[in-house]
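Lab notebook page, bench 4
Experiment: in silico fold of construct C2
Operator: M.H.
Input chain length: 329 residues
Purpose: comparison with the prior construct
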Amino acid sequence: MADKIKHPFVVLLFACALTGGLYWYWHHGQQYESTENAYVNAHVVHIAAQVSGQVTALHVDENQSVKKDAPLLNIDPEPFRIAVERAAAQLQQARYQVQRTSASFRDAEALVRQREAELKNAIVNNTRTQDLLTSKLVAKERADLTETQLKIAEAALDSARARLQAERANLGTSGEGNESIRQATAALEQAQWDLKNCDVHAPVTGDVINLTVRAGDVVAKNQTLFAVIDTSGYWIDANFKETQLESIKPGLEAEIRIDMYPGKVFHGRVDSISGGSGTAFALLPTQNATGNWVKIAQRVPVRIRVLDADADFPLRIGTSGAVKVKIPG
């Protein structure tokens, strides 16, 4: 008799547990949207020299952690030091040349003023002589002489003005604003900038990867030498099905589990949702205009910012994990 009573009780207990489990699963599904199609990502800064030359020192190794502004490598500065000295000498020479041209310009201005005064005197003399000639008080030869002197003074003034115009064109802008000085100054600044960039420093705090350069190598300007993973901020690229996106909004909280650390839970926040599915930006997008087309739910990347990165559990870009986004309500 006890066995008959116990058996229905076990069945009832099992049914209650099953019902409770199904309710929990349904309720959990209402509160979260989850996916295991998720990968760790971070900014990767590619390091390249801004000048060409021989690497004289390398201060990092593969997978080494570096702080922002830490020295990475040095390029032989001697050619650039010489270039700075040459540019500085050319700037000084340009300033001397402007000074000489300015002096010539001032001389030309003074000559124009002198010729203007001489012309003014010639006009007065000629006018007076012509009046005396009318009164027959001077000889015709004297009147012709003053007229000739007037024409000479006019020609001299024209010549002086032409020289002044040439000197003005030759000088250009006076002082430090002169075109040749500005050009020489720019060349000096470029040489100084090149010299400064012989020392390459870390633009961010992070980990060195893909190191392909060694001391003694000759590198070219803008040649990528290695990269630094920016460890100051990580995010998860979680690829949710399009049918899950209705409830996912920027700002929602998320739980993150990384396969590397099964027992560790990271917390995050939805940053943004991609404007298209992953296949929309593929090199060869899928073409569905065929007779045997089968509808498949597409996945859309959702960026989730990691809020509590832990140095004891370092994240590695490209590693996989799982994400649960908590849905309000």
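Observations: The CA atoms of residues 237 and 303 lie 5 Å apart. The chain has a mean pLDDT of 86.
Next step: discuss at group meeting.
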